Amino acid sequence: MIKDLGEKTMNIMQMMKQAQGLQKKLKDTQEELANLEITGESAGGSVKVICDGQGKFKSIKLSAEAINPENPSSVDADTIEMLEDIISSAIMQASDKASKTMEEKMKAVTGGINIPGLNF
Length: 120
Fold this sequence. Notes:
The protein has about 120 residues and is of the alpha+beta class. The protein is built from three helices and three strands; from the N terminus they run αβββαα. It has helices at about 1-35, 65, 75-110, and strands at about 40, 45-50, 55-60.
């Protein structure tokens, strides 16, 4: 009986050690993904969007050709920058709202319990 108790204690300790290792791997992977930059392009590269590895929007780059394909020289740098800024702002606002909605819904499901690996 004491031997069984010792084995159970060892199994629990092994499981705890494995859980800690998994938690560290999850954290490291999330950090790695947050530092990645992934680019999506459209219209032959005239529109480029950069997200991190977690899918979070970082930036958008527009070319004059994307704004006025018939006469790109009519588009000045200030117009391009202004459009990039307002599009970025709208995307970030939508992403923030989506994250907050997800956080609220997930907390309702988990009862507010913090589950490692679920970032909300």
